[in-house]
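Dear Dr. L.,

I hope this message finds you well. Following up on our conversation about the binding site, I have prepared a predicted three-dimensional model of the protein together with 4-O-methyl-beta-D-glucopyranuronic acid. For your records, I am including the exact sequence and ligand specification that went into the calculation, followed by the structure tokens. Please feel free to forward this to your student if that is useful.
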Amino acid sequence: MATRYRGLYSKMRAKKAARGTWQAHAPSGTSHLGLHKRALFILLWGHAMKYFYLSFCLGLLTLPVSVAAEDGHDAWLRYASIDAASMRAHYDMLPATTLALGDSPTLKTTQAELIRGVRGMLGRTLRADANFPHEGAIVLGTFGDVKTTLPAINLPTSLREDGFLLKTVVVKGFPCLLITAPNDRGVLYGVFALLSKIARHQSLTGLDEAQQPSAPIRWVNEWDNLNGSIERGYAGGSIFFENGSVRADLTRAGDYARILASVGINGCTINNVNADPRVLEDSFLPQLARVAKVFRPWGVTLSISVDMSSPKVVGGLDTFDPLDPHVAEWWQKKVDAIYKQIPDFGGVVVKADSEGRLGPSTYGRTPADAANVIARALKPHGGVVFYRAFVYNHHLDWRDPKNDRARAAYDIFHPLDGKFDENVIIQIKYGPIDFQVREPASPLLAGLHSTNEAIELQITQEYLGQQRHLCFLPSLWKEVLDFDMHADGRSTPVKELVAGRSWHRPLGGFVGVADVGMDANWLGHPLAMANLYGFGRLAWDPNLSAGAIAEEWTRLTFGNDPVVVRTITAMQLTSWHIYESYTGPLGAGTLTNILGSHYGPGIESSERNGWGQWHRADHEGIGMDRSVATGTGYVGQYPPAAAKLYESTKATPDALLLFFHHVPYTYVLHSGKTVIQHIYDSHYEGADRAQELVRQWKSLDGHVDEERYAAVLARLNYQAGHAIVWRDAVCTWFFRLSGIADAHGRVDHYPDRIEAEGMQLQGYSPVEVTPSETASGGKAIECAAQEQSCEATFRFDRPAGWYELDVEYFDQNNGESKFRVLVGNQEVDEWVASDHLPATKLNGDSSARRRITGLALRPGDEIHIQGFPDGEEHAPLDYVEIHTWQRDQ
Ligand code: GCW
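The resulting structure of the complex is given below.
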């Protein structure tokens, strides 16, 4: 926001005076248990916990939340004080001491985290002991250490690396809580699991719980550039890089590693897959080692993205041909040098022959040749190569109806199955196109029997509202993970395939593109962190439901007030469907501007170009025919049972119809609606439900802290306005193209709307907006370049009453215009268009809404909108809409 307007125009929510906050009680029962109490420990603990659990289930222990301001930095690791003495008392039976049976850095971190969490939530500082304390203790250690120190304890033999056991045991007559695992990272995960239970007010009675991750690979990728920017990042600059180097201050990188570890994420690739070759320069390696150092205590393995041409660009060779022995030697030396500085380095991610990146095709070599040359260099050190299957031709001839980008990954990688070394993992995006709002599961996920694979999910909401729109992604991911490919004629759900279970692969798992940034709350939208949490939880256990994940996250992030838990969980669970409803329907793609921001509506941007994200809408119908019988043949890439689901229009689920088939607008869906009416209805319904999200959130006023309440409300209000931009653009576009009217008469008919170009203008003049459907009536008004201020006026001609005014304006990022609204001579609102939307011109990216509520208007009132241009932004206005005001909305 321009500093000159900051104080004046940023509206702070009025402080709520009468909010009850609960004081933290002084710690009680923190001293160690007296001798006489020890014998009763298990009995009492068990009894208390049973009572507690019953009370919990009956909802008798509903706690008011503590409403202190929060900025989201702590994510779901807030360790908020359990203030109600009755609830806290249930944990008083926890031992007062923690004993670590080892001294690895991870174990030290683990013990410190336990102390931190217990202190935060229960107000007790656990004593850290190195020897058995002769009283009850929380004992931390690997299986190896437990076997040596406490040989009497039985340990499960089935747990693999990173799995853990939480168990109540008696050691030397003392009641102890044992947190143990095959490796020290597992112990850390066990402590996080324990702390999460306490934070969610769960019972610890007779704890005996073993957990095991579904797959060994649970990594995030960050698309950070060395200059500090982040490709598709929406929450500030890089936490790793600035000005071409690793940041001097890596505090946030360490904090991030802690957040990752808390949900079992064990690897992080810190630079963009569009890799800057400089990361492999010798001078850069010590910098990478600094990042590894802050990751290490949290068991997060460092990896980097590398550019295939590095042997030439960095190494000075005259080739990067993967089959050239000099190239192999270069990779070996480089990898050896990395491991010298980072002995626990994880490996590399490769994007090659994709979107302009160089790759093995330069020399007529295959992805297997390219992956293997690096894999062989990494092998002696235990490192892995993630080779991305996102390889496609972005100069496809759109005029050929048989061309299909969706085919690319399978066509290229399936024939290479079995040719990749054992430490190569093929990283496959969940759908065959590119993180669209709905895609079928990529058939390549079932197309690699003898090769390791990982599914790539996108946490950052590139095509899904860029964290300005609420979109809870575990709902989407679950549909893909649960989809049964029926490979080999048996049940092979995607979650089993990627975990390596279906074909007994040694490696496999989950990669999430996170793109967190320097913004305090990591992802921009305070509710978006549920997606990072959900990614970690699903990578750990893909059988968890989206509902369970949303609820867990809400309890940890906003506390256990049942109203809060119920409301936020419900909002999260409906949000993907809401977003889909007002953007891309029926599997047609997100319908966003694919040539630029990937944000607002840009329905035609995908057509008649080589990028291959076509929906092929024309006057008669819409959709890509990907059938074997008459289309591109893509459906034939699925195993037969799955292919059967998609080959015919009749079998294909409505939600994916236009992904697989080209049909007339009058085609009748399983729902009984025509395609065109579905498009209209879903967009109106989606926009209404986006407004409903605002109402739901407002019901939490006073139940969550002011800071996050205001931040979420601002985003939801914006989203509700932008959903209308989407609705109108998509409906108008299809109405014009199809010529078929909306059965309910809504499309292109806005009785409450006054177009800016129809108002009385002073200094303003009408301009065409491109694409035209992103402005109401295709036009807006802008101040002429030389004007200091402009005015648009209209006369109110409805009955006297209370109204709300929606002013639709454009907020470009190359200027910060100011607006004022007056009724007669009285100013009723003013604001500065200073958001950072991804647009330098008028379109669906920059269109924004200002809602002015509670206006008493009388017939004949003159309403003036004054615009004060700034920079390249000429105070642009689209329309005003007037509704009767309902106080509670
Ligand atoms: O969808 C595209 C994104 C690119 C990204 C690419 C990829 C990092 O728009 O920004 O590049 O996918 O996944 O490689």
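In brief: The first strand starts at residue 97 and ends at 100.

With kind regards,
A. P.
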